[in-house]
Amino acid sequence: MRAVHARPSRRLVPGLPGPSCRSLPSRSLRPRLPPTAPARRPRAPRSRLKAEEPRVSAPTPAAPPPPPTLDDGLSAPLDPRYTFDNFVVGKPNEFAYAAAKRVAETAGMSFNPLFLYGGVGLGKTHLMHAIARCVRQNQPLRRVIYLSAEQFMHRFIRALRQQDTLSFKEQFRSVDVLMVDDIQFISGKDSTQEEFFHTFNALVDQGAQIVLSADKSPTDLDHIGQRLRSRMSCGLVADLHPTTYELRLGILESKAEQMGVPVPPRVLEFIAHKVTTNGREVEGALIRLVAHAQLVGRALTVETAQEVLHDLVRAHDRRVTIEDIQKRVADHFKIRLADMHSARRARAVARPRQVAMYLSKQLTSRSLPYIGKNFGGRDHTTVMHAIRKIEELMAGDPSFAEDVDLLRRMLEA
């Protein structure tokens, strides 16, 4: 039996190749490491927005547009120049101005109706436009209709022709503020008066505000039904008196400032003295003078004003004479016309004579010596004393000032 010899075992030393490992590739000698993931490129932290897009803040919601004016196309356009800020306030119009502003700024019925009356160019339309504009700006949800009485009549006639009076009634009886200018235009138009009367009553019953204007007070309007005149008079009636010298001068200064033209004070005073009809004609005279000076290249002087406004100056001089003033003052104070020329010094005679001298200086272009000559041949110093005396009395006695102002307005009218 063949003996088997066990081969001596060789001790393997770690790190050295054994006898059976010579034919293995050298890479097998490398220690086995756990597989590692391939190296990745570092990534930027994620952002909710793309890197190339700039960060934009959320847009601020736009303010809601103002509510539209609720007039359905019935209201006439408003002149942007006619605002309360541009209205020159003086003694002849301060009451009407205060009443108009109260109505415009008060949501409830302050005075209903408000009836404004006065002559041409004294500011009625200006106040009407100012009321409508103020209400629309401060209370945009209130429905305001402003139109002339002629426009009201034409819309009513068109509704009759189209047999659509129901829509007409709904339009005009669903407003919050109804403003009708020159209401005297519907005088003698019975059908229009009847419709306006019922519209008036319906609006008052539902608490709407009514504002009217005319050239006369409600009681003096001709060919207007008694019922309608009574309705017009039941609210506040405010009149605008003819302009005074101070008010005309204020109008001229305001107009010159709006035009951006430096006008010498003496020129403004000349126009205020010579153009006495109404504020509209006063503004027109200033515009005419400034345009002439700019187009022709002349300086704004009193001499230029006399030349350019010669027709207005002549009309003013023809309109009021010293004799007219003496007659009007004598009738007002119940004295004889001859007392204007007499030497009597009794207060009952001397005071009216002084008033007549004062008005002669204010309303005519006559010199002091000429005025004194027409009052019994008196000296010009006597006329100067009379003027100063009347000015002092007017400043200290409101009742006397009212009498003199009334005489002035009657003479200017």
TrEMBL record:
Biased composition (Basic residues): 1-10
Keywords annotated in UniProt: ATP-binding, Cytoplasm, DNA replication, DNA-binding, Lipid-binding, Nucleotide-binding
InterPro entries associated with the record: AAA+_ATPase, Chromosome_initiator_DnaA, Chromosome_initiator_DnaA-like, Chromosome_initiator_DnaA_CS, DnaA_C, DnaA_dom, P-loop_NTPase, Trp_repressor/repl_initiator
Biased composition (Low complexity): 14-28
GO molecular function per UniProt: ATP binding; DNA replication origin binding; lipid binding
Domain AAA+ ATPase: start-end pairs: 110-240
Annotated GO CC locations: cytoplasm; plasma membrane
Subcellular location, principal: cytoplasm
Binding residues annotated for ATP, in chain numbering: G121, G123, K124, T125
Free-text domain note: Domain I is involved in oligomerization and binding regulators, domain II is flexibile and of varying length in different bacteria, domain III forms the AAA+ region, while domain IV binds dsDNA.
PANTHER family in the cross-refs: CHROMOSOMAL REPLICATION INITIATOR PROTEIN DNAA
Protein name: Chromosomal replication initiator protein DnaA
Organism annotation: Pararhodospirillum photometricum DSM 122
Gene symbol of the encoding locus: dnaA
